[in-house]
Task: inverse folding
């Protein structure tokens, strides 16, 4: 076998996934985003004080997909009907395996199905290079407050439809 990782499968999000996705979210921030953010920023962003039910409720009414590798949840994404990509996270143990690309391809397919003119997203310092490779451009540098800590991030967008089409 030449591959170093299991093939990824995508499936629709189920409300039963929410606790595992919250754990993945916090672990990824603590293990991956920590290279770009200070410990106090990571602690605020991946806080154990996050309200799990409020966090899970953000999936309601959205296109949400879960990626699995060898039966293990490896990542997830969610997109609002208006074209706001809220969360795209891949576990620290599955970085660099094409999972974010597969999730983004699913988002692009859904955006096309919805005939959205663009996708907007707010991304971390860590995620910016990935989004730039996928055709997103920075429209604004921002600092957002998360549980008392200021986090630098970027408002980005990708146009999907040409003007006049």
Result:
């Amino acid at each position: 076998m030449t591959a170093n990782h299991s093939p990824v499968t995508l499936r629709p999000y189920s409300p039963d996934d929410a606790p595992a996705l919250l754990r993945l979210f916090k672990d990824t921030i603590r293990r991956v985003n920590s290279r770009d953010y200070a410990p106090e920023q990571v602690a605020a962003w991946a806080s154990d004080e996050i309200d799990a039910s409020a966090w899970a409720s953000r999936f309601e009414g959205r296109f949400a997909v879960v990626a699995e590798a060898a039966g293990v949840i490896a990542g997830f994404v969610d997109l609002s009907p208006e074209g706001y990509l809220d969360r795209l996270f891949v576990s620290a143990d599955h970085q660099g395996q094409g999972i974010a690309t597969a999730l983004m391809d699913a988002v692009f397919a859904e955006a096309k199905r919805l005939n959205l003119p663009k996708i907007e997203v707010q991304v971390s310092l860590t995620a910016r290079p990935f989004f730039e490779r996928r055709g997103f451009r920075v429209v604004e540098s921002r600092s957002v407050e998360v549980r008392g800590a200021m986090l630098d991030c970027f408002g980005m967008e990708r146009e999907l439809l040409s003007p006049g089409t």
Remarks:
- The first helix runs from residue 18 to 31.
- The longest strand covers residues 149-159.
- The helical segments are 18-31, 39-45, 52-57, 99-113, 128-133.
